[in-house]
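Appendix B, Record 12. Input sequence as logged:
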Amino acid sequence: MLRFLTAGESHGRTLVVIVEGLPAGLRVDADAIARDLKRRQGGYGRGRRMVIESDRADIVAGVRAGETLGAPVAMLIENRDWTNWQYTMRSTAEYAGAPEAGGARRAPVTRPRPGHADLAGGAKYERDDLRDILERASARETAARVAAGALARQLLAHVGVRIVSHVFTLGSITVPDRERIGFAEASALADDAPLHCVNAGLEQAMIAEIDRAREAGDTLGGAFEVIATGVPVGLGSYAQWDRKLDGRLAQALMSIPAIKAVGIGLGPDAASRPGSRVHDEIVTGGAARATGIARPTNNAGGLEGGVTNGEDLRVSVYMKPISTLMKPLRSVDLSTMTEAPAAIERSDVCAVPAAAVVGEAMVAFVLADALLERFGGDSITALERAMSSADAAMRARFSRT
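Logged structural output:
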């Protein structure tokens, strides 16, 4: 129902994203897209490139007078550092511009970084210069995802679904009792919070740990949680393996560079508890929900059997440390097949808060797709009618009168 494609390289001229399947009549807030892009560039531990770039999505198709047309939406995100990379990243065989205007003539990259796509990608695509791999495998591509996710977020907001995130682990430091952190607490965090952690004391300890890693030429990973509230009952399905919403969320989130694990609700902790401390009891008193049903706990994270149950959707995401180290690990120079230190590219010490923004975007896109799958509608008004009818039917279905 809803999909997007991206194109572009980390130091190429621009990133391109095409979003297909948005209903007609959705009001598009370009400033909101820009805010999400700015959030992706923030967070303590980012590198020098975040000073150079100031991302903004230029909508070039699919929107007229501020509203979607039902046609594909195309956006461009300019790479402001392109001037310094025109020669190295030119698309033509020869460089046609003035020599002094093309930027530095960079040597081929032949020393793959452990943990990056460099070596595997070079072997797969038979490229000698690993820049052909790292430019596309770079997390810079996630700016395009955030722009696509921002459109999905605006569709969800139109029907009352809101999404936030918070960082709960960074390096060796973890916020205790993560499951007790609610949507309101996470949404109260300022956009410019250094690490987007709800525990101010632990956030300062996390910052100190990042500083120590920077001094050591090392990097740090961590974990974040995405929370969506107002999610309708019945998104997803257990009827086929590829329609289960938890599986779709896991695939989307695992596709983000450096993400190594995804949990729903309690996540891995569910494996070490007895069933009596995992499964959420079903009680009456949920007057705010169409079912009239409530849950005292939400260990399932809003999903049972691959289907949303009306509780907040909670997804935890685990990120490994970034693979570019200023004190590089051992590698092999593929041009000589001799041991050598891994290549160094401009990079971050820690990008967990930025990854959380990308995580929000991917969750928003999966939820928007599932929303359109369940309720359909080629226009916003048609979607509203379908959702209103489904809500009335569900209230009648669970009514006692």
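The two ends are 37 Å apart (CA to CA).
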